Amino acid sequence: MLNVGDRGIIVNLAGKGAIIKRLIEMGLVRGEEVKVTDKSPLGDPIEVEVKGYRLSLRRKDEADHVFVEVVD
Q1: pLDDT higher than threshold 90 for residue 23
Q2: What is the mean pLDDT of the segment spanning 24-28?
Q3: CA spacing 20 to 30 A to 54: which of 10, 16, 33, 34?
Q4: Does any domain span residue 66?
Q5: Has residue 2 been placed in a domain?
Q6: Is 1 within the bounds of a domain?
């Protein structure tokens, strides 16, 4: 769980099927740095910056498939 303003490096994508394929197609791949730029008060959607653009993960359970190592 990253908070707004936190950065991390993607170390793993967990799961199978369409959700993982969709995350990869959006640029969430191992080794990429992500930064949480916005989050709704209830936790979803979550907006992240990756590869110089912003994308929104509509549901918190989508973000649960992405494991990151926090970067200071």
Answers
A1: yes
A2: 94
A3: 16
A4: yes
A5: no
A6: no
Look at residue 16 and tell me if it is in a domain: yes
pLDDT in tens, 58-68: 888 888 999 99
**CB under 8 Å, gap of 24 or more: what pairs does 39-45 form?**
39/3, 39/4
DSSP H helical segments within the chain, as ranges? 18-25, 60-63
**How many CB atoms are located within 10 Å of the residue 57 CB?**
21
**Which of these, 25, 27, 32, lies nearest to 11 by C-alpha position?**
32
Q: Say whether pLDDT at 72 is over 90.
A: no
Whether residue 3 contacts residue 25, with contact meaning beta carbons closer than 8 Å, is answered with no
| pLDDT higher than threshold 90 for residue 44 | no
CA nearest neighbour of 66 among 4, 8, 17, 18: 8
Q: Domain containing 22: what range?
A: 7-71
Residue 23 sits in a domain whose CATH number is 2.30.30.90
